[in-house]
Amino acid sequence: MVTYKVRVATGKDLMSGTFDCISLTVVGTLGESHKQRLDHFGRDFASGSIDRYTIQCDQDLGELILIRLHKERSTFFPKNSWYCNYVQICTPACITYHFPVYQWIDGYETLELREGTGKTVLDENLPILLTHRQEELRAKQDFYRWRVFVPGLPNYVHIPSYHPPVRHRNPDRPEWNGYIPGFPILINIKATKFLDSNLRFSAIKTASFFLRLGPASLGMKIRGLLDEKRSWKRLKEIRKIFPATKTAISEYVYNHWKEDQFFGYQYLNGINPGLLKRCLCLPEKFPVTDDMVAPSLGEDTCLQAELEKGNIYLADYKILEGISAVQLNGRQQYHCAPLCLLHCGPQGDMMPIAIQLSQTPGPDSPIFLPTDPEWDWLLAKTWVRYAEFYCHEAISHLLETHLVAEAFCLATIRQLPMCHPLYKLVIPHTRYTIQINSIGRALLLNEGGLSDRAMSLGLAGFAEVMCRALAETKYEDLYLPNDFIRRGVQDLPRYYYRDDCLAVWEALETYVSEIINYYYQNDATVEGDTELQAWVLEIFNECFLGRESSGFPTCIKTVPELIRYVTIIIYTCSAKHAAVNTGQLEYTSWMPNFPSSMRCPPMQEKGLTTEESFMESLPDVKTSCIVLLVLWTLSKEPDDKRPLGHFPDIHFVEEAPWKSMQNLKERLTQISCNIRERNKTLPIGYYYLDPALIENSISI
């Protein structure tokens, strides 16, 4: 008889354990064991436990290649799910084999898993293992299918068991409309319920996410704010909905939002810091003259000189042009696609010097200047901040991180088997993304959601912005070092977002390079990996909708190309999202700094704006509260968080990848220290790309 020692690790989440019967079959190159039950009289497989067993075999099984976990009915307890982390088996020769699981087993079933060594399809030399990876992919592709979300946007996971009910609004009976009392946002809980267990939040994260919504909404409801459709009476009144938990940055926004210096600062280190471009020649549609901006530029210079020096920058919101506004709370809303010219002065301050509230110059579209009356200039800047809301929420945040990352996630699940090195490399950066996107679609892009009830553009207009942005997306722009050069901001002073981006990018690129070079010895191994090529092609077709003009690859032929491609994916799923998400509440809680709607048309004359007309232009009380509640919910520090570079799940079992993971963690720790030291010297610190605060994946 030959004895094998077995360790079985159950997940640490509260609901991970099971009372069902678990049995094990071990398969080696020389034979397989009998199916043997694992139990210690009902004390096994509790949450967080590592249970130890021995199994007896008639013969040496040789090199261990597969195991089968059998989950069967218990005599005394009803069926419940089990989350298994891994199985380790030690042979009589003291060789330990690691079998990663990291998934739920819901029903009574058998799960066949292979040993954890990373292998591409070219590395397979046993027919049984080649068949196993083919069957694994076939099963996942049958279960996880693509579905069109909105034509023109990335496709997403089909939830086969859920069919949204037809809802008819009845203003007299809000409970019939699917609204949570005190919180007028339709949250499609049922859609998330039918997600596969392996895509859903943990029990802890689920509870914290939904429970945090209640107290804030109830507080606003009690104060009557959620039912108020009136205008705010004065700016100080808006402090009523300010979150109880204030931060240094949210207070700074409140105290400095009117100032030109802070207005310009937000283009560099706010929550949408990737829009600004260097302007070497003014576009004809923005006829700013030297006389207009001379007071802003100072003595001994002129507009043309500053253009030639590279000190003039442009924020162009053309992508918002021509979209119709809707009615909110019975009142017509308004929209514009402004242009904003900024100047980087000798001290490195980015200052706005001219604003035009349309893409077409003319008598009805004056160019507003810092020398104009105070309320004219403030309202012009507020219109620009309104445009920033859509470019941030629709494009930089929802489209370019959440929706794109979900497509990366689903393609990875469908096209790469668990033993594939790229699966092991990418999968930690997909954790909970599909779940949060299911919630996000309900909160933002659903009848009764945020875009439908609190945005000037409404549901259709908000989606149109994203469709336009995806149609313009280029692969080369996602390669971060190129993006800064393309926008001409590679040497811009006080651009902490850029500095931190490049530091994190370099750390990730080095890590990806080490892993990929370990598994792919040359370009031929990349080009010949059919699973890799299917993965890339599916992302091209389902995420970027087969648009060849995007420049997204349909295949990858070299090792450097693969390193760049995977770095883009991991960065998008982690640091890129942190940069546009973490500061949402801090920069948006003071509503005038980031309005989601405007209730008066853009100004067509100067000298007419007053404090009263300014307040009348801002969102009403109810709209302000809805936006703040949603952004508060989606911006809170996530529970069950895994910081960037922390990989508690053991997917890689070889020494080289483990060393690379440790090196990444050390690099990120040093970057974090550098950022915190720098921030000590700044009046307002930039910490959104501190690796200690970046999550491995998009889960909030």
Structure notes:
The protein is α+β, with helices and mostly antiparallel strands. The chain has a domain at 2-115: PLAT/LH2 domain (Lipoxygenase-1), CATH 2.60.60.20. The strands form six sheets. Strands 2, 3, 4, 6 and 9 form a five-stranded antiparallel β-sheet that branches. Strands 14-15-18-19-20 form a five-stranded antiparallel β-sheet, with helices on both faces. A four-stranded antiparallel β-sheet has the order 5-1-7-8, with no helix packed on it. A hairpin with a 5-residue loop joins strand 18 (339-344) and strand 19 (350-356). GO terms for molecular function: arachidonate 12(S)-lipoxygenase activity; arachidonate 8(R)-lipoxygenase activity; iron ion binding; linoleate 9S-lipoxygenase activity.
List the helices and strands and how they pair.
Elements: E1 2-10, E2 21-28, E3 31-32, E4 36-38, E5 50-57, E6 64-72, E7 82-90, E8 96-105, E9 109-114, H1 127-143, E10 146-147, E11 156-157, E12 179-180, E13 183-186, H2 189-193, H3 203-211, H4 213-222, H5 248-256, H6 260-269, E14 277-278, H7 290-297, H8 303-309, E15 312-316, E16 327-328, E17 331-332, E18 339-344, E19 350-356, E20 367-368, H9 374-415, H10 421-426, H11 433-444, H12 450-454, H13 458-472, H14 480-486, H15 496-519, H16 523-527, H17 530-542, H18 559-581, H19 584-588, H20 611-617, H21 621-635, H22 655-679
Antiparallel strand pairs: 1-5, 1-7, 2-3, 2-4, 2-6, 6-9, 7-8, 10-11, 12-13, 14-15, 15-18, 16-17, 18-19, 19-20
Helix pairs in contact: 4-21, 9-13, 9-17, 9-18, 15-18, 15-22
